[in-house]
Amino acid sequence: MRTAEGARQLFLSRFGAAPSGVWLAPGRANLMGEHTDYNGGFVLPFALGQVTAVAAAPRTDRRLVLCSGQQPGSDVDVLLDDLAPGAVSGWGAYPCGVAWALRAAGRDVPGANIAIDSDVPAGAGLSSSAALECATALALTEVAPAGSAVPRRKLAAIARRAENEFVGVPSGIMDQSASLLCESGHALLLDCQSLESSQVPFDPAAAGARLLLIDTRATHRLAGGEYARRRAECEEAARLLGVPSLRDVPGPAAVERLADPVLRRRARHVVTDDARVLQVVALLRGPACGSGDAYREIGRLLTQAHESLRDDFEVSWPEADATVAAALAGGAFGGRMIGGGFGGSVLALAPESAVDSVRGAIAGAFARRDWTAPEFLDAVPSASARRLT
Ligand code: GLA
């Protein structure tokens, strides 16, 4: 694997010896359920084949020394005992935050040399940060001779804590769970309230369909502040509806009681997207799944979700709207923006026979507007984080 070899080579040249091991963690795409995780709802992500690789070896002086192929010239060197929120900024905050969160959870983290390489594009809404956190978390728990694995669900919570409290991004639990719990050929149905999860077989190719992942190359302009604002709006809507979280709203009709039109739209998105997750799961587990019909219906739900994210939750961006419109014009079953919004990627589902015309329509739509050309990425439901043997 290219990134694993990249991390190993970088380790050799930076530290002058071979690493004790290499750990990989994937980025993710989300089939359905956006902005539902922090509302206690359902999500349905799958792990990508694109991964972050961490080559590591323990040190005896309680230092963490980090370098990254994606961040040349900005190595990080810190004492474990100096780690505290705010102590490290930039890319190093993610791996250092994981060391801090592991220690806060009572794990004895060793000092370590770490070299990182990744082919998860940053800023594409594919959870490159969760991939980095999860690969580091596995490495730091398993690299020392006395190390032992932490149960995956617990490790996801620790990696999320690193992002929330050390990096300062108020994200939900979806991305870290996807990176640590997904299985190849499956999507992960995760109940973000109970944290129960199950594997849902997901093999579009067997039904003559294809997943297309399109990086719109627009970056998360407003992402940080707007994400936090959406969270606060959802909490306020739940409070006004008298429920602990929007997951507990009995159905879409109940949100119409909200007098504030903005809060009503936000809540409507969350409640309807939760329902769409369960509809997609029923289709994937249903008898028609081997036929194109189930995927045609899933495509319709994807487009519905996009409209909800665009009009009710208001987190879409022009390149995503144009991508979805062009995909549909090119013959796709449907498509939607994925991730937090305001930049990043679109996931589309198309019959195999329409893949070329969908790609052509999207590329044409971007060229007509003089936008940077979009990137077509592979989206293959892949395995979760692991140590390379
Ligand atoms: C980001 C966050 C996730 C989730 C999505 C939106 O990716 O990290 O926790 O909230 O946005 O679904």
What is the strand and helix layout of this fold?
Layout: H1 2-15, E1 21-30, E2 42-43, E3 45-59, E4 63-68, E5 76-79, H2 93-104, E6 111-118, H3 128-142, H4 152-167, H5 174-181, E7 186-191, E8 197-201, E9 209-215, H6 223-241, H7 252-255, H8 261-285, H9 292-312, H10 318-329, E10 334-337, E11 345-351, H11 355-368, E12 375-377, E13 386-387
Parallel strand pairs: 4-6
Antiparallel strand pairs: 1-3, 1-13, 2-7, 3-6, 4-5, 7-8, 9-11, 9-12, 10-11
Helix pairs in contact: 2-3, 2-4, 3-4, 3-5, 4-5, 6-8, 8-9, 10-11
The structure holds alpha-D-galactopyranose.
Alpha-D-galactopyranose (GLA) binds next to α5.
How would you describe the overall organization of this protein?
The structure is a single chain. The chain is built from eleven helices and 13 strands. The protein has 389 residues and is of the alpha+beta class. The chain has a six-stranded mixed β-sheet. Strands 10-11-9-12 form a four-stranded antiparallel β-sheet. Strands 2-7-8 form a three-stranded antiparallel β-sheet, sandwiched between helices. A hairpin with a 7-residue loop joins strand 4 (63-68) and strand 5. Helix 3 crosses helix 4 (152-167) and helix 3 (128-142) packs across helix 5. The longest helix has 25 residues, at 261-285. The protein is globular, with a radius of gyration of 21 Å. The structure holds alpha-D-galactopyranose. Residues 34-35, 37-38, 171-172, 174-175, 339-340 line the site of alpha-D-galactopyranose.
